[in-house]
Amino acid sequence: MKIDLLTMPGCGHCASAKQIVEKVKPDFPELEVVIHDITENPELAQQYMLMTAPGVVIDGELVFSGGLDEKKLRDRLKG
Predict the structure, then answer these.
(1) What tens-digit pLDDT sequence spans the chain (79 residues)?
(2) In which region does residue 67 sit, left (phi positive, over 0), alpha (psi from -120 to 50) or beta (all else)?
(3) How far is 40 from 52, CA to CA, in rounded Å?
(4) Does the N terminus or the C terminus of the chain have fewer Cβ atoms within 10 A?
(5) Which among 7, 1, 9, 5 has a CA at the least distance from the CA of 57?
(6) What DSSP line would sit under 6-30, residue for residue?
(7) β-sheet bridge partners, residue 56
(8) Selection from 48, 36, 43 nearest residue 11 by Cα
(9) What is the pLDDT of residue 79?
Protein backbone atom coordinates (compact mmCIF):
# COMPACT_ATOMS: atom_id res chain seq x y z
CA MET A 1 0.00 0.00 0.00
CA LYS A 2 1.34 3.43 -0.90
CA ILE A 3 0.44 6.98 0.08
CA ASP A 4 1.56 9.88 -2.07
CA LEU A 5 1.14 13.06 -0.05
CA LEU A 6 0.89 16.10 -2.32
CA THR A 7 1.96 19.21 -0.43
CA MET A 8 2.97 22.84 -0.84
CA PRO A 9 5.52 24.87 1.17
CA GLY A 10 3.97 27.08 3.85
CA CYS A 11 0.69 25.15 3.82
CA GLY A 12 -0.59 24.61 7.36
CA HIS A 13 -2.98 21.84 6.33
CA CYS A 14 -0.08 20.12 4.55
CA ALA A 15 2.07 20.19 7.69
CA SER A 16 -0.83 18.73 9.67
CA ALA A 17 -1.38 16.00 7.05
CA LYS A 18 2.32 15.06 7.21
CA GLN A 19 2.07 14.68 10.99
CA ILE A 20 -1.05 12.52 10.72
CA VAL A 21 0.50 10.26 8.07
CA GLU A 22 3.66 9.83 10.15
CA LYS A 23 1.53 9.08 13.23
CA VAL A 24 -0.47 6.30 11.58
CA LYS A 25 2.43 4.80 9.60
CA PRO A 26 3.76 2.58 12.44
CA ASP A 27 0.35 0.88 12.68
CA PHE A 28 0.52 -0.12 8.99
CA PRO A 29 3.98 -1.69 8.45
CA GLU A 30 3.29 -2.37 4.76
CA LEU A 31 2.62 1.32 4.12
CA GLU A 32 5.01 3.26 1.90
CA VAL A 33 4.79 7.05 2.16
CA VAL A 34 6.16 9.46 -0.44
CA ILE A 35 5.85 13.21 0.11
CA HIS A 36 5.75 15.39 -2.99
CA ASP A 37 6.04 19.17 -3.28
CA ILE A 38 3.55 20.06 -6.00
CA THR A 39 5.29 23.38 -6.65
CA GLU A 40 8.23 21.28 -7.86
CA ASN A 41 6.04 18.57 -9.42
CA PRO A 42 2.96 20.38 -10.78
CA GLU A 43 2.19 17.47 -13.08
CA LEU A 44 1.08 15.48 -10.03
CA ALA A 45 -1.53 18.08 -9.12
CA GLN A 46 -2.74 17.98 -12.73
CA GLN A 47 -2.71 14.19 -12.89
CA TYR A 48 -4.97 13.88 -9.84
CA MET A 49 -6.94 17.08 -10.59
CA LEU A 50 -5.99 18.39 -7.14
CA MET A 51 -7.63 21.73 -6.45
CA THR A 52 -6.60 22.23 -2.81
CA ALA A 53 -3.50 20.97 -1.03
CA PRO A 54 -2.79 18.69 0.63
CA GLY A 55 -3.80 15.77 -1.52
CA VAL A 56 -3.65 12.24 -0.21
CA VAL A 57 -3.33 9.63 -2.94
CA ILE A 58 -3.69 6.03 -1.83
CA ASP A 59 -2.59 3.41 -4.34
CA GLY A 60 -3.04 5.82 -7.24
CA GLU A 61 -6.43 7.25 -6.21
CA LEU A 62 -6.95 10.75 -4.81
CA VAL A 63 -8.82 10.02 -1.58
CA PHE A 64 -8.55 13.22 0.46
CA SER A 65 -7.84 16.83 -0.47
CA GLY A 66 -7.69 20.11 1.41
CA GLY A 67 -7.15 18.47 4.77
CA LEU A 68 -6.85 15.14 6.50
CA ASP A 69 -8.65 13.51 9.40
CA GLU A 70 -6.72 10.81 11.27
CA LYS A 71 -9.73 8.58 11.91
CA LYS A 72 -10.86 8.72 8.28
CA LEU A 73 -7.34 7.88 7.10
CA ARG A 74 -7.11 4.93 9.49
CA ASP A 75 -10.53 3.67 8.37
CA ARG A 76 -9.51 3.93 4.73
CA LEU A 77 -6.22 2.10 5.30
CA LYS A 78 -7.98 -0.71 7.16
CA GLY A 79 -10.09 -1.21 4.06
Answers:
(1) 999 999 999 999 999 999 999 999 999 999 999 999 999 999 999 999 999 999 999 999 999 999 999 999 999 999 8
(2) left
(3) 16
(4) C
(5) 5
(6) EE-TT-HHHHHHHHHHHHHGGG-TT
(7) 5, 64
(8) 36
(9) 83
